[in-house]
Amino acid sequence: METIPSPAVGAGPAAATEAAASAAAAPRPKQAFGPEARAAVYRAIFERRDMRHFAGGKVDPETLRRLLTAAHQAPSVGFMQPWRFIRVQDRALREKLRQAVERERLETARALGQREDEFMRLKVEGLLDAAELLVVCLADGRERHVFGRRTLPQMDLASASCAIQNLWLAARAEGLGMGWVSLFDPAELASLLGLPPGAEPIALLCLGPVHEFYAEPMLQQQRWASRQPLAELVFDEGWGQASTLFDSLDSSAAAASDVAILGDQGLPA
Ligand SMILES: Cc1cc2nc3c(=O)[nH]c(=O)nc-3n(C[C@H](O)[C@H](O)[C@H](O)COP(=O)(O)O)c2cc1C
Fold it and tell me: How far is the CA of 13 from the centre of ligand 1 (A)?
C-alpha cells in the first residue's frame, strides 16, 4: 500500500525534494482514516468470501438493519437508488426459489459442455441453510432515470451491485457470510415474488452465520478458476499497453498474490 508522505521539515536539497514530492501528493484531509481503521477496511475487502456453506442460526434484526443501511449507502448513478430488497422468511417460498435455482443449475451445466460434470460437483448456493435470504431487485420505472444512463443503461445494475458489495463487506466485518446466487430465470422469480412490470431480480443473497470463511475463493479452491495477476489487467494510456505501475515489484510475488502488492501494511496479522 502507498505510504502517505508526511510534511517535510528542515532545509537542504533532500528536504526540498521531499517537499516537492509532498506537494505533488494529494493533501491529507483530517477525516482520513488512521492506520487501524484503514487496515480493517482492507481486511474486510481481502477476507470477504462468496459463501455457500452456512451454519443455520439467526441474524438479529438490529444487525440486519445495519447491513441493509450499509447497502443503502452505496453510490448510484444520478443517485437513483435502484435497489429493492425482499426478505424471504417463508420456508415454502424459499423452497420454490431453491427449485428455480436448481433448474437453472442444470441448464447451466448443460450449456457448459465439456465442463458439465466439473460444474455439477460445485456447490453453488446455500438457500435453505442460510439464516436469511434477501432477493435484490432493480426497481420498476428505471427508464425515467436518464442521468448517466443515456448511453449506459446498465448503470442501474452497476449501482445495485455497489449496494450488494457494501452489504457483503459489512457482513464480513460482522463475522457473517454471504453468497450471491444468480442462477435463476428472472421472469420466474419476478412471478414468484410479485414484482411489478419493469422490476427485475438480480441476486439471491444467502446471508448468515458460517462455521468458517474459505481462505480463498471457493472456485479457486476447487480449481474452477483462479485470480488473474493484477499487473496483466492494468494498462497505461490505451488497451494492451502494460502499466509501469507494477514494474518495481517482483513479478512472481505479485502474480502469486495481490496481498504482495499491499505489503505488510495492508493486512493485520
Ligand atoms: C454478479 C455475481 C453473481 C454470482 N453468482 C453466483 C452464483 O450463482 N453461484 C455461486 O456459487 N456464486 C456466485 N457468485 C460468486 C462468485 O463465484 C465469486 O464471487 C467468485 O468465485 C470469487 O470468489 P470470492 O467472492 O470468494 O472472492 C457470483 C458473484 C457475483 C459478483
Answer: 52
Cα separation values, 187 from 85, 97, 174, 201, 240, Å: 17, 12, 33, 8, 39
- Predicted structure pTM score: 0.88
Residue whose CB lies within 8 A of the most ligand 1 atoms, among 124, 129, 134, 180, for a mutation test = 180
16-34 burial, b at 16+ Cβ within 10 Å, e below that, comes to eebbeebeeeeeeeeeeee
Q: What is the Cα–Cα distance from 42 to 172, expressed in whole angstroms? A: 12
Question: What helix, strand, coil percent values describe the chain, rounded to 5?
Answer: 45, 10, 45
Answer whether 187's CB lies under 8 Å from 212's CB. Answer: no
Q: How many angstroms separate the CA atoms of 173 and 99, rounded? A: 31
DSSP state letter for 235: B
Q: Check if 183 has its Cβ closer than 6 Å to any atom of ligand 1.
A: yes
Please give the distance, rounded to the nearest whole angstrom, from the Cα atom of residue 25 to the centre of ligand 1.
36
Q: What is the pLDDT of residues 216-265, one digit of tens each?
A: 999 999 999 999 999 999 999 999 999 999 998 765 555 555 555 555 44
Locus of grid cell 505533488: 24
CA nearest to 101, candidates 86, 122, 85: 122
**How large a percentage of the chain has pLDDT more than 70?**
84
Q: Which atom number of ligand 1 is nearest to the Cα of residue 164?
A: 31
